[in-house]
Amino acid sequence: MKPTISIIVPVYNVETYLEECLSSICNQTKKELEILLINDGSTDNSPTICKEFAKEDSRIIVIHQDSQGVSAARNTGVQHATGELIGFVDSDDWILPDMFENLQNLMEDNDSDISVCGYARQFGDEVTHFREKNHIITLSQEEALRELFRGKIYRFALWNKLYRRHCFDNITFPEGRIHEDLAVSYQLFLKADRIVNTSKTGYIYRNREQSILTEKFHKGRIDSYKAWDEIIHTINDVYPQLMEEVWMRFIWWSLDNVQTILGQISDKQEANEQFTRISREVRKHFHNIPKLKQLSWKVKLKLRMINYQYYISAKEKKILKCHIS
């Protein structure tokens, strides 16, 4: 029987969490699945766990490749997927038993190209923001993109969504970069005529200290600005009426990166080097950012400091300065 849904799981050194992740996928109420495990050069016991699960479940296909990063693993998964629909699960997370059945039903009942469910966060053994209410909304492409940049209903993450296969036509994840969700999600939405969202939780995202985005400031964070250049150019061309939402998300993204530098980089020279890179990106777009009424004077002040190549934080008692070249 041809699988309806292909679930792509990049795997890299997650032996502690992998069994729970794979069990939650194998035990889905939706049975017509193809489960693609992309072992991206793991050096722990993850490959063995994948092999053992594949022995027990014929729907599992294990693909091994040299360590190339999550984007390359996802690209491999999409290339090998045979399902009409495509979903993603990160190998340190887990999903509720009816997640993919619900997402497919939502998609079919609402004639949509992308369906989205709510997600909860797990800190240690505690799961927060779990929602059982099934509040459903359908959105046009423009409305869905607006909400994507607002970030209130859903965000750029791939893993709480189900996509029709055609959404990936001529789209690949940027290899060698992090924040690949940011670079690709809006492109997938541009391939969708209608998007449906439910508030009901289906996905459990695990916050862990070893994560690439929660460990010491990762220099790859600045790679996200390559995606922002692409977003700004594309959305301004296709949906200029959405640029206020785009600029707002760009501002908060930049302020968050500055705050991360303040909190996670103790070396003054390195902190200033990373701040210089962020300031350069903000200054590149500063003259195009409209006077957004919803910005408080504090946020406007922070943004102006970044534009003027310095940043004073009274809370951290630190000053960031750009390296002027």
TrEMBL record:
InterPro entries: Glyco_trans_2-like (IPR001173), Nucleotide-diphossugar_trans (IPR029044)
Lineage, opening ranks: Bacteria, Bacillati, Bacillota, Bacilli, Bacillales
Keywords: Glycosyltransferase, Transferase
Any GO MF annotation of the entry: glycosyltransferase activity
Family listed: Belongs to the glycosyltransferase 2 family.
Stated name of the protein: Glycosyltransferase involved in cell wall bisynthesis
Superkingdom of this protein's organism: Bacteria
Domain Glycosyltransferase 2-like: 6-169
